[in-house]
Specification:
The structure holds 2 protein chains of 2 kinds. Chain A is mostly helical. Chain A is built from 5 helices and 1 strand, in the order αβαααα. The N and C termini of chain A lie far apart (about 55 Å). In chain B, α22 packs across α25 and α23 runs antiparallel to α24. The chains are: A mainly alpha, B mainly alpha. Chain B: GO terms for molecular function: DNA binding; protein heterodimerization activity.
């Protein structure tokens, strides 16, 4: 019966997720919303992956320019590419990319993306 | 009967040599009308039957050979009788073949190997003797052949024994050995050493045989310390020679020492300059190494390549050695502060970064021995100051240095330590003969008088305002550190700030997206499903790569337990789906 407390094997976790920080940030941004417990960790996971991609990209930029140190410009360029690839802000994506995604996704996700498509179109209409 | 036995053997096993030999033996035994050997035959048969089931090669061969020997020893009768069986098999030929082709296994003596063919009878007899001896009565039987060797217990071969004897002779003569059987020789040597005391150096031989296992005596430490001392003396001499002008402020120093010195062992520091070096070798090994390195750097006049190492080393040293005060506190407080003083003053004097580093290193290494955070802080700040100041304008630097010294001293935890450091700062100058101008000394002397009021200011400056951004930035810094870790390359500070901005934007976008997703699902709470959708949109989660896979890869075990449902005992799943 491992409902309430999972017995951790060790008391000290390496690479802890700053759960308090994440919750605080979310609350500041969207005070009317709530974050669930597990989603907190998934947000942390998302951040990790984002940072990872950013770092890889900036490192590649630095290597290409034959710099031994990562400079601001590398990071900026990397951020642009990473943000484009992550499809942030629903408004920024194209419906075309959605179409591409549709082919690959599963049944459930397909429907989700369809709804997202509708949302996107809705937003675009709003913008227009 | 023999045929019956043979048949039984046939049924039991393939027509191997053993079985053939057995058959031969049976036939031979039955045909040999020997009363003397009757008992022996019976015993042999018993012996035969017992190993026959096991099918051990050596005893059967043994028995076979014994039987064969007996058969042969019987003489022409046996021969005739055995040859009577030539119609069915050819035991003699079989035996001959066996003798010729049989592998010279453990029981076989090398002598038998050496003489395979020519005189089978002689060979067999010898073999039988040796085999008999090795099998049944090892000790007494071995003695006659091992007249050369010294009564080995292990069933060694004659060749081995011979080699052993040779080995022993060589050992006695003290010649190096190159044996083909190191193991046997090692064991033999050990055995023989146990038996006889004539072995010159068994350990040496063992090491010669197995060079990998030899252990060098650790004599390095003494050498290092000696070299270190030498280096120290050389450097001290080198440093002591240039400036005699620094002797002038000595007059001012004793007063300061009398006033502010609270250390029990603060004596005229001029005499302590060698003691500094001498005391340093008594530090722990790593500290000696550090100081060695410092000294070596001094001597080698290397560049400022070690600036990066300095912060790392002192941190390690401090962490590790903060508890070694007791042993060395007696002699070291003077020296440590002296070094730190010298450290602080040196950068003022000359722009030799290496020396500054070395002093810092030394001071740091010694400061840990002091074990006081105040001194450490002061040393650190001094070091940083030394790093910063590479110019030669003394007087221009002094006010800076003095102000910084104030800051440094202000940050010291205890005014006493600050006073001691400053005192030794001053004291160090004459020893290293830096042009310590009086204003700096006066400023420094004034420092200990105002540690308390100055202490609070720098601290207030750093921790005074508590902006809203501060916890936000500390949280972001977590991810910024991760960024620098993933990048695996040195980064500019501007780049790190850029990363912070990117993260800010990223969080904003993230929250917006989550809001949209949860609103679409008609909820006001963000659930993991929303997160999964977000990651799918980002392209992190595919059909090939699921969310669970990413969780496994990147999150620690404890979080994985919380996120991925797993079945537990009692028909329960956690977390509940």
């Amino acid at each position: 019966m491992a409902f309430s407390t999972t017995v951790f094997q060790r008391k000290y976790i390496k690479r802890k997720a700053p759960r308090g920080f994440l919750k605080r940030v979310f609350k500041r941004q969207k005070p009317h919303l709530r974050l669930e417990t597990s989603s907190d960790l998934l947000v942390h996971l998302n951040c990790l992956l984002f940072v990872h991609r950013l770092a890889e990209e900036s490192r590649m930029n630095a290597f290409e320019n034959k710099y031994g140190i990562i400079k601001k410009e590398h990071v900026q360029a990397a951020a642009k590419i990473t943000k484009l690839s992550t499809n942030f802000k629903l408004g920024t994506t194209n419906l075309g990319t959605f179409g591409l995604h549709l082919k690959k996704l599963t049944f459930r996700s397909y429907y989700k993306t369809r709804f997202c498509e509708l949302l996107v179109s809705h937003f675009l209409r709003e913008v227009d | 009967m023999a045929e019956a036995m043979a048949e039984r053997y046939n049924r039991d096993s393939e027509p191997t040599t053993r079985t053939l030999l057995r058959r031969v033996l049976d036939t031979a035994d039955t045909h040999t009308p020997r009363r003397r050997r009757s008992a022996r035959i019976g015993a042999q048969k018993a012996l035969l039957e017992t190993p026959s089931s096991r099918r051990l090669s050596t005893p059967t061969k043994m028995n076979v050979r014994r039987g064969s020997h007996r058969a042969r020893s019987i003489g022409r009768l046996a021969h005739v009788h055995t040859s009577g069986n030539l119609e069915e098999q050819t035991p003699r030929t079989l035996l001959k073949n066996i003798i010729l082709t049989a592998p010279e296994s453990s029981i076989m003596t090398p002598k038998s190997v050496v003489k395979p063919v020519p005189t089978p009878q002689v060979v067999r007899s010898s073999r039988q003797e040796s085999s008999r001896g090795s099998l049944e009565l090892q000790l007494p039987e071995l003695e006659p052949p091992t007249t050369l060797a010294l009564g080995l217990l292990a069933p060694g071969r004659r060749k081995q024994r011979l080699r052993l004897s040779v080995f022993q002779q060589e050992m006695d003569q003290g010649l190096p050995l190159s044996q083909a059987e190191p193991r046997g020789n090692a064991s033999a040597s050990s055995l023989t050493s146990s038996l006889s005391l004539t072995f010159a150096s068994p350990l040496q031989t063992q090491s010669v045989q197995r060079p990998g296992l030899a252990r060098r005596p650790p004599t390095r430490r003494a050498v290092d310390v000696g070299a270190f001392l030498q280096d120290l003396r050389d450097t001290s001499l080198a440093l002591a020679s240039p400036g005699d002008s620094l002797r002038t402020p000595v007059a001012t120093l004793p007063t300061d020492t009398v006033l502010e010195d609270t250390q029990p062992f603060s004596q005229p520091l001029v005499g302590h300059s060698p003691s500094v070096y001498h005391s340093l070798p008594f530090l722990s090994h790593t500290e000696a190494e550090n100081s060695e390195r410092a000294v070596s750097r001094r001597t080698q006049s290397s560049g400022s390549r070690l600036q990066n190492h300095n912060p790392g080393k002192p941190a390690q040293l401090l962490a590790g050695k903060a508890k070694k005060i007791d042993v060395l506190a007696v002699s070291l407080p003077n020296n440590s502060s002296a070094i730190s003083g010298e450290d602080g003053v040196e950068p003022l004097q000359d722009g030799v970064g290496e020396e500054a580093e070395e002093r810092m290193e030394e001071s740091l290494s010694v400061s840990e021995v002091m074990g006081s955070t105040g001194t450490q802080g002061s040393v650190r700040t001094e070091k940083s100051k030394g790093h910063g100041e590479m110019t030669e304008a003394l007087e221009a630097k002094e006010p800076e240095g003095s102000s910084e010294d104030e800051d440094i001293s202000g940050r010291t935890a205890s005014p006493e330590l600050a006073s001691s450091t400053t005192e030794f700062l001053q004291a160090r100058r004459p020893q290293f003969l830096e042009p310590a101008p009086p204003p700096s000394t006066t400023v420094l002397s004034s420092e200990p008088l105002e540690p308390l009021p100055t202490r609070h200011h720098p601290r207030a400056r750093t921790h005074g305002p508590r902006p809203r951004q501060d916890p936000h930035k500390t949280g972001l810094s977590h991810y910024v550190k991760l960024f620098s870790f993933y990048a695996k390359m040195p980064m500019e500070k501007k780049a790190l700030e850029m990363v912070e901005k990117c993260l800010d934007k990223y969080f904003q976008h993230l929250c917006d997206d989550l809001e949209v997703f949860s609103a679409h699902a008609g909820r006001k709470t963000v659930r993991p499903e929303d997160l999964e959708l977000l990651m799918r949109r980002q392209g992190l989660v595919n059909d090939q790569v699921s969310l669970h896979v990413l969780v496994e890869r990147h999150l620690p075990l404890e979080y994985r337990q919380l996120l991925i449902p797993c079945a537990f005992s009692g028909n329960s799943v956690f977390p509940a789906q």
